[in-house]
Specification:
Beta-galactosidase, Chain A, domain 5, Glycosyltransferase, alpha+beta, elongated, nine-stranded antiparallel β-sheet, 17 helices, 2 domains
């Protein structure tokens, strides 16, 4: 039985196939993404998207697509598809599609008269190289196959236009050729598992339209360069492998390379296996660093996202060594008590008040799985101590511990918490002062630091930190709790509490060390369940609030205003589930499992086999944002692991 499969009716229905997207990545930072039928609908779609260290170290679309054409008896059948203005599609290769099956790798089957043709793609794990296997499954006579590459050679956030600066020359590679459109780029080598004919016929294809960019209010027309085409003749049952990579290889081993890589892939025969497969796609090992990509296709490596996503992406699938590799890599980025939220080196932005506190939580999860207190203290103890001292004494953005031992921070025009959307230069949810989750994380960090130091038998004095931690529960409750309202304030600024019902209070009930008593935890869980819980995660604002926005749609400013004003975030479900199970115990497992079953539907809604970044607050909770988000996948995996752990203890 094939878990993920799509039939002819779905593939040829463009309203369906263009809104469902595929993603493939490797472990060295490259990825490929397109719609289900292979028609690119975003500027972020492409067949080979890879970092370019000699230009800006950003991701660049080198190869946009490769269009196949079947030629029989001098008749050409074009299997590619591109969209142009005014709803024009050319060619219309989707009409030949018969089915797609996605198991360890995606396989699309086409039928042209008596010819049955399949296409399969995968990345080489540790190289910037994608392999495509083309197979003539059935035919009445030998078939000529033509492959036409569409090249972009541009940064993924931008679009290319026809110009006179492109290098239209090519160089020969073994069983193929190489192209480099502009200086500074790595060339792309197109090499085949057998000798083929290359016909050089440079040309531009103008005004290719990306409908998703148009819908989102961005530039959406691109010109792509087509240098020529490859031709070969294949017999019934014969396959040929095409390698598109940034380095030349010996093509004689391509068939073996494809088979070896295919065997390494995880079979996607159930919900959990799909999530494990998706989890691996966020891991990037490059330049001696192991990092977590926050989401595809447009996110990079983000500090906050890394710490939140790491436990689910590694520990929940029995990969503690991966967790340590990521922690070791990102620990080096700590500066003056803060981690970069986005960017690296000179481009880093140290503007996240919660990322350092999530660092403690991530290490806490690592220790809970490995029980290796001594190693954790040795590797991260000094970093943790420096963070605590920085928060206590004060750092950038007015981040500082107050007399009541709680943390306050923020400056006008900035959004330092995870609710960090900016619209027209202004923070949508600035939350200046004392945010509830920051102080829940602060208390958890203090208690875990003390626990770690004690169990590692460290010589670090703990009296001061114990005194601060002891003071927090009373301060926290007095500051955030209202018995009459029955829930926690979202933040407090200059003594004034904000009582918008948001999900940030859930962390006070989910974290291992909580500053509130069980009765308050139960009240928090009850409010969040009633006002914010959906089948796709937690809303960011109660629908009863006049500022609530239930649809995440429109141009960037419109979308940014809705980003944390009602939009549903799947990653928050992890902490709701954890808090709910702490209150309900084993009796709560059935309810959480029911919600997990609802998440299974998302695998074929947007990014195939993964979970999207966000969903509309209003039913039917349409998926939005990135097609595959690290903390969305990780927190669902963490809930699955949490339930399995509870059951195993019975």
């Amino acid at each position: 039985m094939n878990y993920l499969k799509f039939n002819k009716e779905q593939l040829i229905n463009l309203s369906y196939s263009l809104t469902h997207e595929l993603l493939r990545t490797n472990r060295s930072g490259s990825f490929a993404s397109t719609s289900l039928i292979g028609c690119n609908t975003r500027k972020y779609h492409g067949l080979l998207i890879t970092p370019q260290s000699l230009i800006d170290n950003e991701m660049h679309v080198l190869v946009s697509s490769i269009d196949p054409t079947i030629i029989q008896q001098d008749t050409e059948f074009h299997l590619g598809i591109h969209q142009y203005p005014n709803g024009v599609f050319a060619p219309k290769g989707h009409k030949y599609a018969r089915k797609m099956v996605i198991d360890s790798i995606p396989k699309t089957t086409y039928r042209v008269g008596g010819v049955i043709f399949t296409q399969e793609r995968l990345f080489i794990s540790n190289a910037d190289r994608i392999l495509t296997r083309y197979t003539i499954v059935d035919c009445h006579s030998p078939v000529k196959l033509r492959l036409q590459p569409f090249l972009a050679f541009r940064q993924r956030h931008h679009l290319s236009k026809a110009n006179n600066f492109v290098d239209k020359s090519y160089k020969k590679s073994k069983n193929g050729v190489q192209f480099k459109m502009y200086q500074g780029y790595t060339p792309v080598h197109f090499q085949f598992s057998k000798k083929v004919e290359y016909v050089h016929a440079p040309d531009w294809y103008y005004n290719i339209e990306y409908s998703e960019e148009k819908r989102r209010g961005y530039d959406y027309l691109e010109d792509l360069y087509v240098p020529g085409y490859f031709e070969m003749t294949l017999k019934k049952g014969e396959s040929i492998i095409l390698s598109a990579g940034t380095e030349e290889i010996n093509p004689t081993g391509l068939k073996r390379m494809f088979a070896t890589e295919a065997k390494r892939r995880i079979h996607r025969q159930n919900f959990k296996n799909n999530l494990i497969n998706a989890a691996e796609q966020f891991v990037q090992k490059r330049n001696k660093k192991t990092q977590i990509v926050a989401g595809y296709p447009w996110f990079g490596v983000w500090g906050r996202d890394t710490f939140i996503a790491l436990p689910g992406l590694s520990l929940s699938i029995d990969k503690p060594e991966l967790a340590k590799q990521v922690l070791d890599s990102i620990s080096k980025n700590l500066k003056d008590g803060l981690f970069p939220n986005i960017g690296e080196n000179d481009s880093a932005a140290f503007n996240s008040i919660d990322a350092p506190l999530w660092y403690f939580w991530s290490i806490q999860q690592y220790v809970a799985k490995t029980n290796d207190y001594r190693l954790a203290w040795k590797q991260y103890g000094k970093k943790m101590l420096s963070i605590l001292n920085s928060y206590k004494n004060g750092i950038d953005y007015n981040i500082k511990m107050q007399e009541n031992a709680l943390i306050s921070g923020g400056v006008p025009g900035k959004a330092l918490t995870w609710m960090d959307a900016i619209a027209e230069g202004k923070a949508v949810t600035p939350r200046i002062g004392m945010p509830v989750e920051i102080n829940a994380l602060w208390y958890n960090a203090l208690r875990f630091f003390i626990e770690l130091a004690q169990k590692a038998k460290a010589r670090t004095p703990l009296e001061e930190w114990q005194a601060i931690a002891n003071k927090i529960p009373q301060s926290f409750t007095e500051t955030f709790w209202d018995e009459r309202k029955g829930y926690l304030a979202d933040f407090v600024c200059n003594g004034k509490a904000n009582w918008d019902i948001r999900p940030n209070m859930i962390f006070a009930a989910s974290l291992a060390y909580s500053p509130i008593k069980d009765s308050i935890k139960a009240a928090v869980v009850k409010t969040v369940k009633k006002e914010l819980l959906t089948t796709r995660g937690l809303r960011t604002l109660s629908p009863k609030n006049p500022q609530y926005k239930g649809i995440y749609e429109g141009d960037q400013n419109t979308r940014d205003r809705a980003y944390h004003q009602g939009t549903v975030w799947p990653w928050l479900f992890g902490h709701f589930a954890e808090a709910y199970l702490k209150i309900r115990g084993e009796k709560g497992i059935a309810k959480i499992e029911w919600y997990l079953e609802q998440f299974e539907e998302t695998l074929i809604e947007h990014g195939i086999g993964s979970i999207s970044e966000i969903f509309d607050g209003n039913p039917p909770h349409t998926p939005r944002g990135s097609i595959s988000q690290a903390w969305s996948v990780s927190e669902v995996l963490r809930v699955i692991d949490l339930i399995e752990s509870i059951k195993n203890k019975k």
